[in-house]
User: Fold these one by one.
Assistant:
Number 1:
Amino acid sequence: MRTDRLSSLAINKKRQPEAALLAAGALTAGFLNGLLGAGGGVILVFLLELLYKPAGEKAKTVFTTSLCALCAVSLVSFVMYVSEGRAELSAPLPYLLPAAAGGCAGAWLLHRIPVRALKLLFALVVIWSGCYMLFS
Amino acid sequence: MADIAVTFLIAVLAGLGVGSGGLLVIYLTLACGVPQLRAQGINLAFFIVSAAASVALQLRRAKPDAAVLSVLAVFGIAGALLGSRAAGFADPGLLRRAFGGILALSGAYTLIRSVPPRHMQTRRKTPLQR
């Protein structure tokens, strides 16, 4: 099986502006993740696509990179929430098994179904919900 | 039972790369009446598990660069420490509105990205042109 690697992302002295932009974006994404419990993914994907899509990196490599980073970031946010008493360790338990099963199912379906229509539907639902939460 | 079905569907969307976009927070706060901060905590745990499951499968096809991942993780974690501390001081109503604003923006971004550029769109011939 062919493996795509973000080879063009190696950071050296010539690429310090890229590294600085990545650091600033990651800091912002992490802050939003901790503050709102979600929302960092859009920033990371936008940033990685902006920097590396023109160099020919594939969407799935960008997506996997942002997911890996957000796993670590969300883990720290969750530990902070629990340690400061804003979330209970037991509260998410009923959601974890369907979360793992759904994550695997989604990754398996990724190369098997067209996702454009789903993205459109998802975007419309999210815009409506966001406006509702913003103005209600 | 509805909770399990909704959580599964949202995790499928996350694994597909469509995005989970805090959909679980929306469901928990708007449909189940769970307080905002508690819903955010549940969403974080949900995201860790669904994303880890998805990454475990994706890593066979796409390997992230270690240097980039280190930068993202180190600065992301620093931001998360600041953000989760700030969440403790923020007014829940303000958090809810901020969450809504970020959702609306991320939805708009997803919408723009999912529409192909005009030059990529193939024009279908009308019956008169055939």
Number 2:
Amino acid sequence: MTPARDSELGKAYSARREALERVRDAVLADLRDIVEEDPLVERVTGRVKSIEQFLKKAGKLRADGQPKYLYPLEEIQDQVGLRIIVKFDGERDRVRDEVLTIFRPVEDRFHQPEEADRFGYEATHLVCLVPPDIREKTVSPIDFFELQVCTLFQHAWAEANHDVGYKSKGKLSWEEQRMIALTAANAWGADRVFEELRHKEGSATTK
Amino acid sequence: MAARTKLKAPTAVPIQSWTYDFLAAYDVLASKSLTVREAERNISGGVIKINQEIESYMGRLFERDEETYDIPICFVGDQSKNDSNPIRTHIRALAHGPQEARRRAARALAVKLALATPGTTKEGLLVVMVGQHSGTTRVVLWRFGAGASLSLVTKKEGEAELKVNLRTFTKGTQYFKAALFEGSSARTAFWEGQVRDTQSHAREVDHARYWVNDFLEAQSSITDARGTKLLETAIKATNKELKDPAHQANLTQAARLAATQKGMRTSLSRFADNLLPEVREAFLRHAGSERVREAIFTVDRTTALRRFGARRVLINGRISLQAPNDAFGREVVMGQPDGAGETTITIRGRITREEVRSNDA
């Protein structure tokens, strides 16, 4: 990305941050309204993408060297990102279904490494339309927000990896990358163990 | 080429701001429950050369105003199709694709419309038009019914020609279904649109099934639970504002009716139509913008009962306590039963009415 484009985008993004915070708060309030009495939901969090992260993403290139985002302000869909953290893996789909009673998704998938022998980021990943009432109330500059539904272990891994692994991408040795994959495998294993134990004891909640 | 009729639209609308660069029209026969191949045989038409007469006629309809396209819809990504939506893909091809891609997309939409059209519906004319203005692209689809002022005089692909019949102009412009999509060339554009159906009674028609769900594979832009929640919020805000008990009763009655009518499709505007004029006015002030007010939803019974419903508690078999659901935990606080199974209930609030009644009930 050229410095001029970078500066222009940075200004435009800064100008919308306040409105993005309003969107985040409104969506957060809706999500909390849905899950506030759910004992199997640990918490709901929300963030507005920082200017640095936005510009970094906006500057990404495709394999052919062309910019990945021609219209970053429109095309980057996680300017507002929210996460619902559930206690057990078996609750992800149920919570996702409840969320989709009030939001319309344009993307809905479970993110996980494609190869069976790899471990890494895992979460239910939704891109939803900002509903018309929230758009109006917040004077929203965006049409979409991103929502992840993940377990405590998936969340913990994603957070630690974001600070250590993701930001150092390309600088880590093969062995360091293996170690990070190992922690992801441990998180995956921990979810499996607790899910199985929960079912074994007949404590799985159908709510 | 057929002789052109010199035509002037009844209402002059400034349309010079749009540049029209694609127009296609197809006669479409109902083909629901037929195969795609059979449906393909049931459509005829193609790309139309835009002449002054057509531009003048269609340009007027192409212009958007809230009266014309009043119901917001959105496409929903289909997980099994890589989160895309086939109709949105056609709309995007029409908006930004090369001419051949546009032609294919328009034809595919005609086939889709045929497949969505039930046998009870007469032949219709699908018109697809694309225009550009200041970096924005607009795609509008219309389905005109029998007796419309537009007709295809030559239906062969590559030579298709539309004719405007001045004598039926008024009737033809009054009866159509339409969908409007607008956006930039960003890959995230064209997820939403607006529809209009003038072929049925606007307030009563169920847009969802045929035009929106079956043809466009889209949905109202709000979910049923969200619509119900917005209804409840607007009702509560209105109720706070109303002073006259008769007005309050009118609102409460309408809310209860909405909560109990199974599968009723409505919008905040439609709900308001059943209110007394003074109540309606107050309600609409709390119902949000046109876009929010016109969004269609089915009253979600679970949400409605939770939000509008009441909870009744019978104490010692002789004391009845009834309150709206949302009052529990606020004005009415119920403690945990003690060892003897007795519960302390606290009611806190201002007594607004008190009366003595016979104890027959």
Number 3:
Amino acid sequence: MIEPWISLGGLLVTTGIYIVFAALKKKYQKEFFSPIIFGIILTILFLVAFGIPYNVYNYLGEYIGYLLTAAITCLAIPLYKQLPLLKKNLKPIILGIAIGSTSSLVGVYLLSLIFGLNNIQLVTLLPTSVTSGVAVEMSRELGGIVPVTIAVVIVTGIFGNLFAVPMLKWFKIKSPVAKGIAIGASSHVFGTIKAMEMGEKEGAASSLALVLGAIITVIVMAIVYLFI
Amino acid sequence: MIMPLLIVTMGVGLMDTWGDLQAFLIPAIVIAILTTILVLGVTGVIADAIMRRYEK
């Protein structure tokens, strides 16, 4: 059984790259040194160079997956603390998420038409804004290519995590609650991690949008499905 | 710090889906990015606007 050791080594390499680039980013105050982007690219190069397949590298990933699940549960704490604020703004939150999640489906549909994608490619991309667990089920149910859906969800999340702050500025979104739900509805867990860094209000709103966005997307999909 | 690190290990998985993704790589990435901008903008602007109306 050598796999766990290779996996552990690989994860340590990733951690090392991450720490180095996090330090570079802090020292030079440049967004360019993104530990996430460089972590992914350099780890892939490392694995390719040593001929290590992803499933061996990710041998311990199952357990890391548990950590992520546990970490997601922790999102409930700021949600609980910010409950009065969220309750007070229930209407803008629900309307924002409902219209935002629907706009995601419409956006993917229209862009797929523009790019001339086939039906399978369309349903593969459709759950792009939804958190990965729900996105996988949605893609499978609709007959999409599940691994590609996961990849696209990750791309969406990374993009949201990296560019949430400039995008919010660009759209002139001011209130912390609106910022949070905008991030959560557009870039699920990865975005929510960013929202947490911005503040507890943003983080709580983002976690709520992450959950409600997934539920609303599934409901809208079911309704659309009834009519085709 | 553990959560961003998890993003990295999941992102490395892109190396496996590369083959399937390659067929429509550019449209897939463009669609993912444009949709993210669209949803963030729509959700945030609507929520912000409704909140401002309520406060007045």
Number 4:
Amino acid sequence: MKDIDTMLKKHTPKPKRQLTPTFTQNVMEDITMKKQHNKSLSIMQRVRKHATVTAVAIGLIGSTAAAATALWLAPNAQHLSTQPLENGNRVVGINLENCQFFDISEGVPTTPSERAVYYEIHKEADITDQKMAQLLKANCEETANSVTLEQHFKLSENQHLYTSTPLVVTAITDTSIRVKLHPVLDQEAYETFGEVELSRISDDTPTYDLTQEISFNDLRAGDSVLLVMQNDTIGPSEMLYSIGPLQDPENTAVIGIMRITPPTADTSELYQAYAQDIVRTEPCSTDPSGFCRAYEFYR
Amino acid sequence: MQTPQDTELIAQTLDGDDDSFAEIVDRYKNAVYYHCFAILKDEASAQDVAQETFIAAYYSLSKYNPKYKLATWLFRIATNKSFDYIRKSKHVLKDSEVFVQRAESRQKQPEQEQIEQELHAAVAALKPKYRAVVSLYYWQGQTYAEIAHSMNAPINSVRVWLRRAKAQLKEDLS
């Protein structure tokens, strides 16, 4: 018997079949397909949220009194539990308070609500339990902002209005406002535009905070705001969380402002993590782990 | 034109240039495929797992630690994916199948080819963990330290696994 070392070195097992000539192309196509899937998921989540927001807003428009005094209770998200799974992943439970969560509508904004949600986090994902809670809280804040904005301004799709992403006021006068993207947002994802000065504005522009009407003059540099804008040249395709008009300030008029609490995190991180790093899961009895996934990881 | 280093290709990919990642795939696809084949013993499964390896690598590229060679990192992903595949599909050649392969090779092959066939059949009968160590050490030219990183194990465990694998192969082939 020859030395095992020599034999092993000499005889490398070679598969009888070589890789298909299109292997690299297949890998790259798969990557592209998954990217598109990820993007679709993100868009889908936003569309679902917008649909929920619109439905709630319609319900509120009927009551003038409610519209004037409605107070959205501050959303909160707290880490509840972490359960390691056999596959190396973990299920994280987060307790959500006062949150309109995606398509699940619980009561009205003025009523306290509480529910636990669960996510399976992939073992190779960087997301910590704390980060998960932050992203979900930011998601709740985004929904609360959207609902309140629509309530204040009675937005409807045929007005061709745009509402901005969260912005920070860097300077303000009676006739202009300078803003930049909120620093928690992924600047690259929103095609950074630096600071923008919008001068089609006046000191009687309707201005609100999350609970009531305030004066335009109450705004200060450093405030976080959402702008409602009208643009003369851009079509009506984008409605919610748009930056398009901010890239065309000459043709953009600010027709409303809402001061918001500074967002906790960038919700686009949450959307991008879907199916790649996290999947929604629910307690169930049919799986030995005690949780059933709403959809599968694609990694 | 100078061939770009792995680190340049990684930086360009992270910058959004997918063609650079395609070059990485071209550069390492055969090594990854051969390694998966050594563990899985089946061409079709090895190709699938090699493909999954590169897709996972693409999405985790920002986590790559340049302290290790890119090949070492890819072997780490490929090894994990292969083990996952075995766990999921229970795709393991049963001992009886291995013995049939060895018996057939004795009957039909010339001496050199017969030795090779018997050796590969004996390797195929090793535990997946040992197959992975043998593949990385003998056929992919990895050092103990690199194998330890690829398999997420201490260097001493790698030494022990390799010694046990060789002992089993000796016994099997004697």
